[in-house]
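JOB MANIFEST
job_type = single_chain_structure
chain_count = 1
residues = 211
[input]
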Amino acid sequence: VLIAVGRDACTRNIGLETIGVKINEKNGKVPVNDEEQTNVPYVYAIGDILEGKLELTPVAIQAGKLLAQRLYGGSSKKCDYINVPTTVFTPLEYGCCGLAEERAVEEYGNQNLEVYHSLFWPLEWTVPGRDNNTCYGKIICNKQDNNRVIGFHVLGPNAGEVTQGFAAAMKCGLTKELLNETIGIHPTCAEVFTTMDVTKSSGQDITQRGC
């Protein structure tokens, strides 16, 4: 049984209505623009109370730092809420960064995307003889932008560690060509992203025979 406990935005009893700050009456979340500014120009909001943003502590920290730098340090850098790496720490971890495939299709159109994917077999699973086609990796590439990676997904051991590294690469403009040119560390789980050659549209078999 999976129990997911959400967070409540405790914004209804702090006097926001007195100064005219609008909130979503349904969930208490605060709508802001891309600079964390509310409908009242001198009021800003960051963190879990933002409507449509991720409820993650590192996101709140980053947004707060960048907001302070914009307000008092002359910076113009905004928080990137798209390429945020995150992980679900289930027994078999799932990590992702960027867009889900469905969201990418909505935003760019299926004809402008190429999706590469593969099953893979972690080395540590060979001795206990676990199923060699349980783990999965997928990247979503924008064909109109030099096959830039706009979505990264991995299901397997240590997915959080793997995702953190690729998230940095995505911030640097990672493309499929750069992944192809990267020499993998064998045998690692992350290596699969340097050898992917099967596209989802091809319908080819993605099962693996070994690590």
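[summary]
The first helix runs from residue 16 to 19.
The CA atoms of residues 1 and 70 lie 44 Å apart.
exit_status = 0
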